[in-house]
Amino acid sequence: MAKLGHEVIFLCQTHYGRQLAGVKRVTLKQSLSHEALEAKELPHFEKTLAQADQYRCAFKQLKHQGFNPDVIISHTGWGCGMHSSLIWPGAKRVAYLEWWFAAYSELLVNNEQSNQWLKFDETSKLKFRERNLPLSLELNEASIIVTPTRWQRKQLPTSLQQHCQVIPDGVDLKRFHPDINNKSERPLLTYGTRGMEAMRRFPEFILELPKLLSAEPQLEVEIAGQDSIFYGGKPPSNGSWGNWAKEQLSTWIDQGRVRMVGTLKAEKYQAWLQKSWIHVYLTRPFVVSWSLCEAMASGCCLVVSDIEPIREFTQKDSALHINEMHKNTFTKAVASLLGDEAKRKTLGEAARLRASYFSISNSHKQWRQLLDEELTT
Description:
The chain contains 16 helices and twelve strands. The chain is of the alpha/beta class. The protein is globular.
């Protein structure tokens, strides 16, 4: 939008030194800072309200300086844009929705088998529901709601779905692309995650590896990501899922066939996806990770969970869909692909083609249409 000549201000509490060309960054400091908020050590609900008040104070300062926006886009759920209508009642508001905690969502349906590593009791479900309170205020006052997937839109109450548009976040096809010259010489299975946790089926994945590694003596495995929990659940008794995984796979780690590569910087991450023979993406019915689209754009042969949010991205011909809860299904799927180079190539090419639909350029076009046509003031 800045390139198109609009005046754009980005209001934030943390930025890690990043700059966007043409965008004026305003960072909340002192009593309005992220550090000041964290120092209060508030429960989630109270923290959201406190953050909403911080941003309200920042809005007042901007208005006092003469800034009066036509359009406000806020990432809802954290309180940032909750009070924007108090300061700028005439502005159009776009609420970017990440997640609505629906009581009927597949994520919260308690099935003993599928939730053995991550169970949601009545108390946790109630806390999730309460997180919708500040979220609902912001969504109801928004001119329009935007969410990245049909699956995320589906979580909303019907009345809010009617005001919600789906605009994928977008993947950079120039950054993430296949490179046959970078393919690993030895069979390589990759698994990438933000955090090693039950939400991303990490325990189920690890428990399948001993059978697979024993059956496929040439196979090597690399696991990227942090040994942390971001989306809920408790760690195992030995402190973390990463430590637990190292115990389960100690024999193959000692042999050098299983490697935990940690968090990869951008260029190494791009090359890591390119060298993969088979990339694994497993998850519960939740927000799909950016890494799935990045792996698709990189032309990875994909083995994925056969659930609705994944099927929205990966059609039947662009990934191998499995039910990882069925014993040996994962091992058989990977073994079959290791022995079929043509199938791996076909799936990888189809994944790259499918990723073009979710390109960053298409995302920008949809945002421009939304802002230029539907929200013109």
